[in-house]
Amino acid sequence: MTELAAVKSALRTQAVETPSWAYGNSGTRFKVFAQAGVPRDPWEKLADAAKVHEFTGVAPTVALHIPWDKVEDYGKLAKHAEEHGVKLGAINSNTFQDDDYKLGSICHPDAAVRRKAIGHLLECVDIMDATGSTDLKLWFADGTNYPGQDDIRERQDRLAEGLAEVYQRLGEGQRMLLEYKFFEPAFYATDVPDWGTAYAHCLKLGEKAQVVVDTGHHAPGTNIEFIVATLLREGKLGGFDFNSRFYADDDLMVGAADPFQLFRIMYEVVRGGGFGPDVAFMLDQCHNIEAKIPAIIRSVMNVQEATAKALLVDRSALDAAQRAGDVLEANAVIMDAYNTDVRPLLASLREDMDLDPDPIAAYRRSGWAQKIAEERVGGQQAGWGA
Amino acid sequence: MTELAAVKSALRTQAVETPSWAYGNSGTRFKVFAQAGVPRDPWEKLADAAKVHEFTGVAPTVALHIPWDKVEDYGKLAKHAEEHGVKLGAINSNTFQDDDYKLGSICHPDAAVRRKAIGHLLECVDIMDATGSTDLKLWFADGTNYPGQDDIRERQDRLAEGLAEVYQRLGEGQRMLLEYKFFEPAFYATDVPDWGTAYAHCLKLGEKAQVVVDTGHHAPGTNIEFIVATLLREGKLGGFDFNSRFYADDDLMVGAADPFQLFRIMYEVVRGGGFGPDVAFMLDQCHNIEAKIPAIIRSVMNVQEATAKALLVDRSALDAAQRAGDVLEANAVIMDAYNTDVRPLLASLREDMDLDPDPIAAYRRSGWAQKIAEERVGGQQAGWGA
Amino acid sequence: MTELAAVKSALRTQAVETPSWAYGNSGTRFKVFAQAGVPRDPWEKLADAAKVHEFTGVAPTVALHIPWDKVEDYGKLAKHAEEHGVKLGAINSNTFQDDDYKLGSICHPDAAVRRKAIGHLLECVDIMDATGSTDLKLWFADGTNYPGQDDIRERQDRLAEGLAEVYQRLGEGQRMLLEYKFFEPAFYATDVPDWGTAYAHCLKLGEKAQVVVDTGHHAPGTNIEFIVATLLREGKLGGFDFNSRFYADDDLMVGAADPFQLFRIMYEVVRGGGFGPDVAFMLDQCHNIEAKIPAIIRSVMNVQEATAKALLVDRSALDAAQRAGDVLEANAVIMDAYNTDVRPLLASLREDMDLDPDPIAAYRRSGWAQKIAEERVGGQQAGWGA
Amino acid sequence: MTELAAVKSALRTQAVETPSWAYGNSGTRFKVFAQAGVPRDPWEKLADAAKVHEFTGVAPTVALHIPWDKVEDYGKLAKHAEEHGVKLGAINSNTFQDDDYKLGSICHPDAAVRRKAIGHLLECVDIMDATGSTDLKLWFADGTNYPGQDDIRERQDRLAEGLAEVYQRLGEGQRMLLEYKFFEPAFYATDVPDWGTAYAHCLKLGEKAQVVVDTGHHAPGTNIEFIVATLLREGKLGGFDFNSRFYADDDLMVGAADPFQLFRIMYEVVRGGGFGPDVAFMLDQCHNIEAKIPAIIRSVMNVQEATAKALLVDRSALDAAQRAGDVLEANAVIMDAYNTDVRPLLASLREDMDLDPDPIAAYRRSGWAQKIAEERVGGQQAGWGA
Q1: Which InterPro entries does the record associate with it (chains A, B, C, D) (predicted)?
Q2: Less crowded by CB within 10 Å, the N or C end of chain C?
């Protein structure tokens, strides 16, 4: 197999999970702009997600968010998904939208609130059992807004205790992915603010606990690919929540703000042996002002392009330059791959996969956008609150 | 008059404007936690604001936000305020919550949307005429989320054109305060992102246009007191929107995150001749998880304490050390004032003003919180959306 | 002329000025690593700079730094440059390396130090007269490390006074380029910390005073292309000091850290009419660990590549998408140009210019690196201190 | 014992270690400004450090930096220290100033350079044996400036291997303190960039390996007290390098930039049981423009003041407010302690300790500054290079 064939072969195995909530409305604290055709329920979200997979060929699973995607019969939902050509993916918990959670969830000073939050997490594992999902993705909005508001250390104790209980509940083949976030909605101290904290907890929990890297959840200037390389080296990288940002957790389309960073991240994934089924590649974005389905198609393509470039790095030339201490040449090897226009390669891959070489154009031609705008009238559009 | 008497005398003249919207509910994109007793309309907001003035003695005016505080008869509203012991202050425009504003307001690519936005701004001046407000405070959420989304420069042209039309409408004794903001809700390019942009526009508009410094609207690490000193030197500082932040535009209580910074800002205000009626000292905060009225009382007190410390700086000792190039001594003079506990001084000032020396305790004792929690049942609580 | 021919034609006119000091040793406060073959004097620096132009064809001028490049006879230096195929460019002043400047130069509290600094600046204009340079580039390290250390506002007064005196001295065809910098070496308040401050001073000085944008001199997250667009709109963009950074003022090779940002900047330059002789495109980098000449060649090529992509943007398609409010399509137009591999185009341009299509390879083959390493033995290598 | 007596008693036990290098010259990459009276050798540095202890009573030990403080007979140096009333403290290694270290030290691609670096670290343990120091403080400047320059992950392997060898060499009662740093002098990827990386290595090494928190080594906005609380909870906080910063690693006097942050850090230390001999409280600052000895005295006093305020927090009132979820009250308890002017308390403590209540004034009166300026003439002043 030629090198290019090997790259194409690898790209063919790529799987990017799209999040059900990205198909619904989202916004900022200032305004949520509703869009025509937005799904009203999980069934419609899955139909949209299926379109993304139909045109890209590499988005076979859909993450659910509980309770936003709560249904009576998850087996039926899973079947619905499969009928549309996709599968259900990670289960995402939500412990930030009930009034009880004003001061936190599993870190809350009140044991009753913690109990409620843990109950929700356990329920999420029940749902995993029902859907066959293997990943429980945990993001906690927990934190404090003011110095002194609560005891930082005790909150860690509560966190550890809550996580341990949920960890015990995990069945075979199930794992817990713990996400960290620099800030927001907590504005003074977030309870899982960085990869170190997530890592320390996962280490104590055991093998089934791993860290999720959301690319928008870091302090300004943080070298994210270093974290990726380190977590892979530690065997603790569970997956990604991809998106991009210029400022804070902007949740823009992945690759939109700093495509070179995305490439560097994917290079460390490839180099560190993370390009495979053990690491979950998920999107977690907010399409506040742009059309949602094509934005997600574009995002999937951006991940593909970055991956293709990462796979094209001439590893032996790079290794030689690195060992020789040739700073400029080693950097040039990396840049050569990055500067390559991989769009023809990906177009060719799509043709091999019996897909349209231009997924965006194909989606536009499909009439889906018009169809859902016309049909999905009335009812309550999905959003973060429902 | 002794020095301390002069400080007290100056503090007695201080006026901090509180914003009507801070009495309503607010939150993050993740959740708005409702609080008991929150006002349902501008009348109730003014009643709450009057409590802040009643207990602090230095919060005599209340800023309105249009359309959130729209009423049929502004004369009646002004009278209502006065009956409660306060006055109406600045009029704040809102060009970010209509669906039309998804891609901007006065910078929008579509002239019809720009026309609508300008119409709203002109209406705000009408309201100023009716209320006797002198300040039109303009904050634009305008910007773009993605490179290429719109033409950065043309948006400046549209901004200049729109501002000019509104500026022309200002009557005698009225002015326009232009606010800048680093980012949010726009995540790529904000149309008025920094003081330089606001300054450049105000300069061209004329004397009635001045810059507002919101203390939470800067890039990480920005030296805000430098901007304050510079704008005062240029005669272009119109006022402040006070709040504090650890990360982005967190909108925490002013003085809560970095009280030393607040002191440095107030020192430059005092030193630059800005402590007087020409500079508006306004709060602009979100009390997402804390009780609103006592949080605003605390914020007013924090501004007072920072001001007191700024007034206590031994200016002649400072000047001598600065001229001598004595870095440590000059810094020590500043720190000496900052490290002083001014709470006894302010307690004494309040007693001079026939106020309780402890405004928070007095408010708690007053029973107002219980009263409004009991009485304000039913209806729609005020929030950013209404 | 086809579109591609027009792009090539424009690229052919491009001129990137390289800085004499980038050929000498540089480092961090921790260590300056010396490199073999580094020039010992301005004559050797110019010989190196000539190599960069020889292989790239677009680096025809060299900026000098006084006193580092002080010589007895500038006419002779200019002639030496021309004999090597390059010309002398901007004159850069230095008011930060004498012991007198510990607390500042033209903002220093002591009038005698200010006088000395102004004297140096006037001397730089004398040198411009002698070399025929048109640009006086001013960067002031002035600032304070501690709150209270000096009076922020008075320092602005001193700055204005000093600049005015130097401005008066400028002859016909000469201009003053004022640089701003977020921080370093001052760690509390820098006297020209942002574009707004530089702009405000330049505005008062007059038409010959313009702002220089150093791409590494901003707060984290700052949208630099916005500043570029704004300064061009105001007619106040004098030029660039190109370099790149991941953190602070890292002074890495331009385009190395965020090539997409460089592209966006160049797009605003092209779109705003700044691609021409009125805006100076200069490098200002530190090659602490990499070989200097090839690093500068690479940097020049990176600017070329970003410019080529900026020129390739389909302006009419972009305009149509922007006017239609099609966020995704407008962004796609920009990304299409960015994702294009322009290296073949530039290779072809070089062949048209009778240059080797691969400047780095050609330089390596030339033997210059070996030659200077062998010949430049003994003496004092050039660095920031000499 | 009354509460105040308990606070004074605790403060009396406080020990702040001052660094030998802070008595020498330092600066930025732009300039090192020499100061009169600066020590020429370790013996003179210790004499200066003894003055800091003489006037503050809480700076009994002095950290050494190898090779800057290399002497033939460390026993003699230790005796010299004791004769002056101080003791030798932590040994700090230096693997960043030899030409060999251009691309790293124990992470260098070349095994020979790694061997040299490890050799130096082992030599430092030898010196610890000779001086009786218990702490080996390791800060590595290692990292890369450009993407691709070296293999991020392999560098971690090399780091782990090198640390393990040094760890094995530690004797009884000796420990290894591993410092992390966000960036500088490496500008792309630093090999120990954050607490998580340092923690992960220390965990594998064993009980004698602990993390050092340098307060200036974090990304913008990082909540340092959270890290302190977390490391204490994990039993992995070895000590502090205190200093302060407005921007990057500015190395200003501790408490000068954000005294409230220093207080919050000291509160977590006290609350987490870290106020005792197991955590080393060290300064690591650069007095680039201010007089060194009084700056260090001021810094020690700033740590004392922050500690005093932290000790004054009404823990039971805080606990009650936290458990009640009273955000404002809990914050008020913390702020009440912070706003207290503790200078009278510390003056009284000093009198109890037979010290002058005003250490700065006492130092100024002592004539030491004049004496060393007169006597220390000739020779090579100490600085980072020697």
Answers
A1: L-rhamnose_isomerase, Rhamnose_iso-rel, Xyl_isomerase-like_sf, Xyl_isomerase-like_TIM-brl
A2: N
| Cβ–Cβ gap A219/D221 under 8 Å | yes
Contact partners of B by the rule of 3+ C-beta pairs under 8 A? Answer: A, C, D
**Which of residues 82 through 121 in chain D touch A, CB cutoff 8 A?**
103, 109-110
The Cα–Cα gap between B104 and B186 comes to: 9
Chain C CB contacts of B103 below 8 Å: 325, 327
Residues in C touching B199 (Cβ below 8 Å):
196, 200
Chain position carrying tokens 């003496």: C379
CA distances from A215 to A239, A270, A282, C246 (A): 11, 17, 11, 16
Per-residue pLDDT of chain A (386 residues; tens, 9 = 90+): 678 999 999 999 999 999 999 999 999 999 999 999 999 999 999 999 999 999 999 999 999 999 999 999 999 999 999 999 999 999 999 999 999 999 999 999 999 999 999 999 999 999 999 999 999 999 999 999 999 999 999 999 999 999 999 999 999 999 999 999 999 999 999 999 999 999 999 999 999 999 999 999 999 999 999 999 999 999 999 999 999 999 999 999 999 999 999 999 999 999 999 999 999 999 999 999 999 999 999 999 999 999 999 999 999 999 999 999 999 999 999 999 999 999 999 999 999 999 999 999 999 999 999 999 999 999 999 998 75
* CB contact (8 A) between residue B29 and residue A27: yes
Closest by CA to D202, choosing from D186, D188, D213, D217, is: D213
In order, the DSSP letters of B229-282 are HHHHHTT-EEEEEE-B-SSSS--BPTTSS-HHHHHHHHHHHHHTT-SSTTSEEE
Residues of D in contact with B343 (CB under 8 A): 339
To test the contact with chain D by mutation, choose from C95, C181, C187 the residue with the greatest count of D C-beta atoms within 10 A, namely C187
**Which pLDDT belongs to residue D3?**
87
- Burial class, B111, CB count within 10 angstroms (exposed 0-12 / middle 13-18 / buried 19+): exposed
CA–CA distance, C84 with A180 (Å, rounded to integer): 57
Name the residue among D23, D13, D69, D36 with its Cα closest to residue D283. Answer: D23
Q: Give the integer Cα–Cα distance in Å for B195 and D209.
A: 48
D31 contact C CB<8A: yes
Sort out which chain B residues have CB atoms less than 8 A from A220's CB and list them: 220
CB C108, CB C117: distance < 8 Å: yes
Strands (E), A53-121: 61-65, 87-92
Q: Show Cβ contacts of residue D226 under 8 Å, excluding neighbours closer than 6 positions.
A: A152, A189, A190, A193, D268
Q: Are strands A31-32 and A27-28 parallel, antiparallel or unpaired?
A: antiparallel
- Give the tokens for residue A224: 């994210």
Instruction: Collapse the DSSP code of D92 into the 3-class scheme (helix H, G, I; strand E, B; otherwise coil) and give the result.
Output: strand
Provide the b/e sequence for C51-68 (b: ≥16 CB within 10 Å). Answer: bbbbbbbbbbbbbbbbeb
- Cβ pair A302, A56 in contact under 8 A: no
**pLDDT band at C386; cut points 50, 70, 90:** low
Classify burial at C277, counting beta carbons within 10 Å of its beta carbon; exposed 0-12, middle 13-18, buried 19 or more. exposed
A235: number of Cβ within 10 Å: 10
A-C Cβ pairs (cutoff 8 Å, strict): 53
* Nearest one of A385, A279, A306 to A34, comparing CA atoms: A385
What's the CA gap between C126 and C132, in Å, rounded?
A: 10
